[in-house]
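Appendix B, example 12.
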Amino acid sequence: MNEKTGTIKVKPNDTDTARAFMTAMDNSSKQTKEVNHSFFRSKSEVVTVFLRLKEVIRLMNETSYDRKINVDLESSLTQEKLSKLHEFFEDMGERIRSNTMGDVDYLECWEIGQELNHLIHRLEGSTDGANWMTATFLPFQRISLTEKMYQEGTREFKKDYMYAGYAETGKNLYNAYYDKEDDLIKRKMVQPQRAICSEFFLPMEDMEFDYEDYANWCEQNDAKKYGYDYEHIKYHGKWQIGRVIESYLTINFPMYDEIRYRIEENA
């Protein structure tokens, strides 16, 4: 097979966030073909994960749970469709927590649902119209955010910078605002960001955040009344790791069979 390799070199920020992230990376491989981690973005892996997603949807629909997944993945895979699948998972989680699942094997449903959620996140960035790249390194590591790290959070994604992945189930206020899911506030389903993880994001373009519009949306939907301090960075922040100083990648990310990641301390 004619394999293609993409490389990324990053100069890390002088921050607690970057140092914690690099420590996590030191405990995993920085190369996609090493056995102790998976990148889920090579051509074969994208196909494998997609096929497993379809199988998990079938398994979920065969349970006795009265709500079924009705998302067409035959014609295309888009971020909108992944969002619909994630809404199903969040709704099921809420029903489990509120004990309103009915007479079903909720442990079986939750086990299948957790894999569904995992696969959804693995496919984000490989969909039609995706504007970022992402990779998760195993063993998966969750890094709790400290008060100092909260102070290092930013509001926007900028091209040519690397950001840490998040490690929460559910959506924070920024994601709820972006998808216009105001019902998540009233259902108290919003989750603050408490941690980052051994995963990174590379925006392919500047992704501006209209904070004033976000704040107005939060006020209109009584976010503070429901206990959400939307001004706190934990509800809308991103955690920058460093600047990309050299990248041999294109936006057509799944074309690569291997991606290598390297920290350049003195660049």
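The chain is about 35% helix and 15% strand. Strands lie at 5-12, 132-136, 142-144, 161-166, 195-203, 240-247, 258-263.
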